[in-house]
Specification:
Blueprint lengths: L13 E2 L7 E10 L2 H7 L9 E2 L3 E9 L11 E4 L9 H4 L17 E2 L6 E2 L9 E5 L3 E3 L6 H6 L3 H12 L7 E5 L3 H12 L4 E6 L2 H10 L3 E4 L5 H7 L6 E6 L4 H9 L1 E9 L13 H6 L3 E4 L7 H13 L11 E3 L4 H10 L5 E4 L1
Parallel strand pairs: 3-7, 10-11, 10-13, 11-12, 13-14, 14-15, 16-17
Antiparallel strand pairs: 1-6, 2-4, 2-8, 2-17, 4-5, 5-9
Helix pairs in contact: 4-5
Bound molecules: adenosine-5-diphosphoribose (APR) and zinc ion (2 copies).
Adenosine-5-diphosphoribose binds next to helix 4, helix 5, strand 11 and helix 8.
Length: 353
Amino acid sequence: MAPGKNEPVRVETIVVPDPGPGEAVVKVQACGVCHTDLHYKQGGINDDFPFLLGHEAAGVVESVGPDVTDVAPGDFVILNWRAVCGKCRACRRGRPWYCFDTHNATQKMTLADGTELSAALGIGAFAEKTLVAAGQCTKVDPSVSPAVAGLLGCGVMAGIGAALNTGEVGRGDTVAVIGCGGVGDAAVVGSRLAGAARIIAVDIDDRKLETARAMGATHTVNSRDTDPVAAVRELTGGFGADVVIEAVGRPETYHQAFYARDLAGTVVLVGVPTPEMKLELPLLDVFGRGGALKSSWYGDCLPSRDFPMLVDLHQQGRIDLGAFVTETIGLDDVEKAFARMHEGDVLRSVVVL
Ligand code: APR
Ligand code: ZN
Ligand code: ZN
C-alpha cells in the first residue's frame, strides 16, 4: 500500500469485498514490480492515495459474482488492465484491443478502518487477494510458473505486442529497439519470434545491451558513445530499419527512432512520455519519409488471444519469458525493489506469495 506521495510503501491489512455482479476475487500467486507502480507512489499518475499497488499478476480465481460465466473458481488466470467491454465504438468495429471503455471492479477494496483504496491500474495485486472485473481475468495453461505468467499482464506483453501487433514485424524485417529494459527486451523477443532478420538493440548501458543480446538481438549499439542513427543505417545497408521500436519514452530517443527507420518504415512508441515532453520534427520529413508513426497501448494486445498463446510458446520453449524474472521477492521487499529498479539493476523483481 502506498499511503501518500513519495512515502515508503508498507504492508497493511485490507478488506476485499465478496465479488458482486461481473466481479471476481483472485488469490494472487505472483506480481511483478513495474515502473507504473513507482509512478503511482511518486504521485505521477494521480493524487488518489492510498494506492494498492501491483498490476502484473497471475493467480487463481477464488470466487466469482453473479452472472460471471467466462471464469470460475479454481481457474489459473493472468490479470489484465484493459478489460474489453464489447460495446464501445472500437469494440463494435472489431478492434477490441483498442477498447475505449475498459472496466474494473465496481466495489472498492478498503483498509481495515474503511478508507477506500485506489487499485493501481484497476488491479492492486501486491496483496494475497484482489477484487477485479471478471473480464480482467484471462485463463491460461496452469502449468506455467505464476511469476512468469504475471509478467504478461503488463511490461512484457507491451514489448512483445509492440513488435508483433503494433509494429507488425515480419519475416526478414530489420528492427531496431531503442531502450532495452524489460519492455525493450520483450520487443526483441517479439521481433525474433516474428522472424526478423536483424534485431539491433540500442541502449546507453552496456549491461542492458548484453541482456538484449541474450534475448535475441543480433547487433548492439551503445548510443552514449555512438550515433545510433548512423549505426542503425550502417547495419541496414545504409537505409535504416523497417521497424524501429522506441521503448524509452523521451523526445530525443523518439527523434532517433524517426531517423533510424527506412523510408516508408514504421516507428512504434511504446515507452511512456511525461506531460511536459515535446517533440519537434520537420513536417516535410514526416511527409517525405512516409510510412507509419504508431503508438502501442499495452502492446495493442488482446488478452484473450495473446496471453494463452504466449504462455503456450513459453511452455514449448519457443520464447523464454523466465529470463525477465531477475529476482523473486516477498511482499515486504517492494520498497527495495523500487530502489533496484531505479538503479537499473533488474529487468523485473517479482513478488511471490
Ligand atoms: N537512449 C537509449 N536508451 C536509454 C536512454 C537513452 N537516452 N535512456 C534510458 N535508456 C534505457 C535504459 O538504460 C534502460 O535500459 O532505456 C531502458 C529503460 O528501461 P527500464 O527503465 O527498465 O524501463 P522499462 O520497464 O523497459 O519501460 C520502458 O516503457 O512502459 C514504459 O513507463 C515505461 O517509459 C517506460 C518504458
Ligand atoms: Zn470496448
Ligand atoms: Zn505495468
